[in-house]
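step: validate -> pass
step: tokenize input -> pass
step: predict -> running
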Amino acid sequence: MANTNRFVGLHRGPIDHKSSSVINQVANGAIDMGSVIAVTTTINSAEILPRVEQISSQGSGLVYGIAVSGDADGIYGDGSASTDDSTRATTGALQGIVVVTQGRCPARVSGDGVGVVVIGSPLTQSATAGVLELAGTGDVILAFALNDVGAGDIDMIAVDVQRAGIL
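step: predict -> pass
step: emit ->
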């Protein structure tokens, strides 16, 4: 059974600004709040910064951070993919997005994959776009879980983004 939103008082941004690295980027499409994002491989030569997007490249070294706000200014949902724009950071390309590259923030995490997520578990990008899962051998670690996730669930939980390298 999925958790309820534990962050109802936190509508956007990291959990603690004093311990976070937060940067501004340009979205390449719609991005859910709390989603894992990566720099796109398609670069527009007319733009100064590369765009970012949700990816579904499992264990990828392309992961960059967690979306915590954006032009759509949505709220953190229950971890499931958005069915409307209320839980999206951006709704389309060329919108601004705020990304946590280090520090604590809510993120979409799956209890499926190579095992159940418990507090302290290393997390990597899953095969589901924008969702973290338990890292396996050879996966690139983006964050560590600060809450548990039940088997088969996708939840919005607190994570500590550290980009710790390969497990």
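step: describe -> The CA atoms of residues 39 and 52 lie 4 Å apart.
step: cleanup -> pass
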